[in-house]
Amino acid sequence: MKVLDFPLTKITISFVIGILVSYYWQPTIFIAAAMTIITAIIFSILYFLSFKNKRVILVFGISTYLISFWLGIITLLLHTESLQQSNYIHCKKAFENEQNISFTLMEQLKGNSYNDRYVALLNHIESSTYTGKIIVNIKKDNLRNTLIIGNIIQAKVTLQHTTAPKNPNQFDYGKYLANKQIYAQVYLSKAEIEVSKKIRKNVWFYAARLNSRIIRNLEKAHFNKTEMNVAMGLILGQRQEISSDILKDYQYSGATHILSVSGLHVGFIMLFILFILKPISNTRKGSFIKLIAILISLSLFGIISGLSPPVLRSVVMFSFLAIGNHLRRGSNIYHTLLISILLILLFEPYFLFDAGFQLSYIALFSILWIQPLLKEIWKPKNKISTYIWEALTVSFAAQIGTFPVCLYYFHQFPCLFFVTNILILPVLSFTMITGIIVMLISAFFSCPVFLIQIFEKSIYILNLITHTIASMEYFVIRDISFNFYYLITFYLLTIAIIFWLKKPTYPKVIAIFIAVILVQLSFIMTKKDLEEKQELIVYNVKKKTIITERNGKKMLLFTNEDLGKNSKTLSIIGNTESLQGIQKIKNTFFFNSKKILLIDSSGVYKRNISPDILILIQSPKINVDRVLLDLKPKIIVADASNSYSIQNYWKTSCSKKRIPFHATGEMGFFKLN
Description:
Helix 1 crosses helix 3. Helix 20 (624-631) links the parallel strand 17 (613-616) and strand 18 (635-638). Strands 1, 2, 3, 4, 5, 6, 7 and 8 form an 8-stranded mixed sheet that branches. The chain has a 5-stranded mixed sheet with strand order 14-13-12-11-20, with no helix packed on it. Strands 15-16-17-18-19 form a 5-stranded mixed sheet. By secondary structure, it is of the alpha+beta class. The protein contains 22 helices and 20 strands.
């Protein structure tokens, strides 16, 4: 059966399109509800007419997809918490002045050098009840962190909006949080918070408590700290304590996915349960017993893993696969996956914009669709060759499917990913099984030392393999420019080629040629956009001044320091292929007929210049009121090389003179087109 012939396929696609339209168009709930009701009425009329007139069936089908489309729109709107009047985003005073707020910790995030970080659920602002999630940053000190999930905390603080990227081409963390319905964060010290004796005991509390018990039992058994941190990421998805060096090794070796609990891990559990229950016959009763065992095991794993969204997605996905297998619908596995997508998005439509969700389903669809094709290329005759070939084909199938989206999000490609997968899969299989057994025992009792030692050694081998491969950094291609045009056209080309390889026909050859032309057009459009681009950017780099001037393909970089050995600073710029040269900053220059004056730490300037834009760097000791009187600039820009206190003084002076003031530390990079 063709996937597109299945009605649920078109319903799911219509629902997804509805979510996308709602996300970018953002209609009102009134319009969405009205259109849904109108479409539902038309659907009902056509449903009854279809019994009498078969010609109406086609129109009835179209009305079904329209209902799905409008349901997608209204589902996203109903799950957008910022549209709800009870959400704290509507309490403007909380963002302007300090307010007494109450919140409950619900998830611990990976901290940084300065703060422990949590996701919290807001309870009250002053005496009013508000809802919504916020990020809580609590300053680290020398004392042990005694906060736990479920703690109800009160503090007097000002909410801060999640900000846009401070430099171009950077990851938009504010948008990422908004897709998770988080619109604000707070910064606190332990002295500023009051922890209630009452603890909110919900499902996240018990999941966190179970995690804590596992960690405590592993620590008692003297589990090596480095390996234990990786084990918590590998089995439970808790990556908070994994060092940046180890994360970098897994990233450069192409094995980052094993530290994010997802389909791979849940799939291992499902296969392990099936292996244990292999003696049970595949009768109707035996199949039902296996199904119940799988569903219970996956649910327990989800609870032990802290009920994180990636785990829940994977548990739902593989639960549907197990149900489909029990109902003997293995041939329609695509349809089973589509049902899981529809169900997940119905309850959490914002998952559609999560990179993990996209990569999980794309990888699984690719393995199911492409791997059988690759497998037919060669049929090895011994078991070792068969294992290696199957591992390679699975790895390449997943990589072919996820390649464009990985380049779009991460702009890098680990060329040795297939080597990593061949070497790591045997160890990973053993590690996962051992780790699950260790974690299950540790959740209730002290685990036998020999099991922990075996688990610890397998983690050590995993780390050693990834570090060895990652050390060959020249096999990692970084800073790949890959835009939305490329993403769409490369997927069209890939899909056209796979369809042709499955069953070559003349129309499919034409489709490949059309896809190739579209890829070429995407390159032409990108090149045209680049050639027409003219911009000057003042970057936000702490204690440094970075300015770029672009005229088409040519880009000049102006700075106050030697960047020859500072690749980190260069990486802020993004694509440096068009960089023509690096020059020392000039005090006066022109861009698109705009006169620009720069005053540095010397504080020296000519009074008769009258610039359009005045850029202040390196905290110059100047009387800004006199400067404004002498130069009369139209706008002042202060980069992050200036001290915060001086910038506040400048901002006040500019406000009095009604001159726009742009501080990159507060507003992000300054761009002049």
